[in-house]
Design goal:
Number of helices: 4
Helix content: 25-40%
Strand content: 35-45%
Distance between the termini: 64 Å
Structural class: alpha+beta
Shape: globular
Radius of gyration: 25 Å
């Protein structure tokens, strides 16, 4: 009789421990933000601060494009610009604000008709994010590019929902969604 009670107690204890572990694991799983949810909240350096850093280094350069992408687990700004004779590129670590690389090279003759972004008239990355996340309901923005396509300034926002990526192109002046492409 004592052996049966000991077996019942052992089984009951093991079951209780198993259920407790499962409950804790489930609670932790639901309380942890996914990488996608945490993505936009991890951005530390503002776009304006990154542009100021670019302009401090390349004083006469006009900004052609701005990208914010995740590389090796960190966000990196890449800003490209130009003058009438040179083109410039700067990469900035978002977390530290430090320049990763910067370079300049002679502008090719066929590239001398470039148009700069009008950063005072374009919508912010935050506004572009809201528009893209609304267009793909339940998604989170993870990558951003602001650039010229023909005569238009375009925000290209990559959003992720349930592991599926979509690219939402938005007119950076009118806020109108141009297209949504799902990968």
């Amino acid at each position: 009789m004592k052996t049966i009670n000991l077996k019942k107690i052992t089984i009951a204890t093991a079951a209780a421990i198993g259920l407790g572990t499962a409950a804790i694991a489930t609670t932790n799983y639901f309380n942890q933000p996914t990488t996608v949810q945490a993505a936009s909240s991890k951005i530390k350096l503002s776009q304006n601060a990154a542009v100021k850093k670019f302009k401090a280094k390349f004083k006469k350069a006009k900004v052609e494009s701005i990208s914010l992408d995740k590389e090796n687990g960190r966000y990196v700004y890449e800003i490209e610009g130009f003058t009438s004779t040179r083109e410039y590129d700067m990469r900035i670590n978002d977390a530290t604000g430090k320049t990763i690389s910067s370079k300049s090279k002679k502008l090719d003759r066929d590239e001398r008709n470039k148009k700069a972004l009008n950063l005072k008239k374009t919508i912010s990355r935050s506004t572009a994010t809201k528009i893209a996340q609304k267009k793909v309901a339940g998604s989170k923005a993870t990558e951003w590019t602001l650039e010229r396509e023909g005569s238009r300034s375009i925000w290209d926002v990559t959003v992720t929902k349930n592991g599926q990526k979509s690219e939402v192109k938005i007119n950076a002046l009118t806020k109108k969604v141009i297209s949504v492409e799902r990968d």
